[in-house]
Amino acid sequence: MDFRVMVLSLFLWLFPFGASAIDQLDELTELVYQYPSKAFSQLALLEKTFAANHINSDINQLRLSVLKCQNLLQLGENEAAINVAQLGDARAKQLKLDQARPYFLICQADANLNNNNIQNALPLLDSAITLARRYQQPQALVDALRLRGQLDTDTDNFSSAIEDLRLAIDIYPDIHTQTQNWIWPPQAYIYAAMGNLLYATHDFPQAMYYTNLGIQSSDAKGKVLHIILRNAARIALDNQEFDYSDQLEIQAKILLPELESPLELAYSYAILASIALDKGRIENAEEYIAIAINTFQKQNQKVAIMRSNRLLAQIRFAQHQDDEALILMNQAIEQGESLNQYSDLKGFYGIMSDYYLEQDDFKQAYTFLLKRYRATELANQEMNNARILQFKARLNQQNIGLTGNDHAPESDSILQELNVDWVYSTLFLIAMLLLGGMIWYLIDKQNKRAPHIEGDEPVETLVQQILSVLNNAKQGNYPLSLLIFNASQIRQVDLPSLQDELQHRLREQDKLIRYSMDEIVIVLPHTSTEGAQKVITQLVACIQPWQGSSKVNIGVAAMQQFDTLESLIKRASINQLGKVKSGENN
């Protein structure tokens, strides 16, 4: 009896400690973004407390790693953040806590974006979004959509960016509906990302509206508020709100001490320098950029040094020190070419072309104009390659068998219902595993025997061809339509034969690709919406025998000038969903 009392007393003592630990982790979530240096100290203290008491759960340990990873990002320690994220992801897999994995993938993606490594960041973000949806993690989904929206904004993929950011804003109120909290971005950052997108599309009043929403958010404090005020000063300036821009700039400067990381301070000074330059305050701009360059050189931030040289060159042009400005611009161009920063090089060549045009040196102006055109082509090619990697990652993920994860909970519930002896339970589980393995082996064998769905061409080649068709349609200003069909009700082994039959009904210039496990995408160049409807009628007749009695619904979308492949597919999917709902209502 005494032993039971001791156990009960211990439990009652441990329970408040566990609840207190969870509360501390929740408080640290906001602190990580707002006051990262303060959060770093508290995280280290909490880590020691967990280790000393030996009562922390695996979930709390993983959550501590997630917070630590994001904290390192906020302090500018990108390489350290990547190491923590990779270890955390491996630990989550080992513990079978897959709901934690999207947070570590987001952290890795964010660090790669900070290092200008878009090719690694895009597939990581796509994987994070897939896992966040699968395991119902709105906190991760909001953050991944925010990051992808920011990336698309930076690469002028505006239609995709606005869809991601609108979805993030809609989902944000639901972030606390999940059973286990991990980490979530400040709402102010979501609004700020939307403001930056609208600013990039030159919709300055709407950009100012969303940025003000960010400023007014309850979580806009410390570093978060400084960053939004800094961006708002730029937007207000271009929106002709000069007095308001000055007020915002002053408020942003007051909060500069909140940035305890030298690298973060340097980035802020560089942005304040660009604002001061546009306001005609040349001396202030020169002072700010000198501080920034000094830090960037100490930290060996090559891309930041390159961009700072470009800004300093513009300051020298404004001071009519053309010779020194040209030296700085040539240095920036050399750095950009060695780092393959084609997006930056477009701007650099443009500055040089405009300068020589003003000097009536048309030969040099034309030379830099050609270089700018070439850099634009290389930048687009680089982004297309990154998108192809993203599509490949999506296809690989959806082709991986998830049989073990899907059936494990079902097996557990069956065993609980049967309430059999543990020996029989073990035998039952072994039998289920053997049966699952045999089924997987037979399906895999059938798939290998079946003709390859995409023919002899690899997936990346087909995606590249489709992107090329889209670009040609835009340049040639001719219509293009995209069809999407969900083949989930057709057996996997029958899909190759069905796709061969569909291919025979299409023209030679039409492109057909297996976009995901259950989705077939068809691109119809030189085809209007009316023509696409006629093609749909032919394809429905072809698909219906394979699908049986259920109705065949094919989504359609007509290309607009600013469309990307992703946005076209999304609109076609929405059209298909509308047809499904309409059929259900009828």
Automatic annotation (TrEMBL):
Species of origin: Shewanella glacialipiscicola
A family per Pfam: GGDEF
Domain of life: Bacteria
Domain GGDEF: 478-586
SUPFAM superfamilies: Nucleotide cyclase, TPR-like
Matches recorded under InterPro entries: GGDEF_dom (IPR000160), Nucleotide_cyclase (IPR029787), Rev_trsase/Diguanyl_cyclase (IPR043128), TPR-like_helical_dom_sf (IPR011990), TPR_rpt (IPR019734)
Segments traversing the membrane: 422-443
Keywords for the protein's UniProt record, in alphabetical order: Membrane, Transmembrane, Transmembrane helix
Name this polypeptide is given: GGDEF domain-containing protein
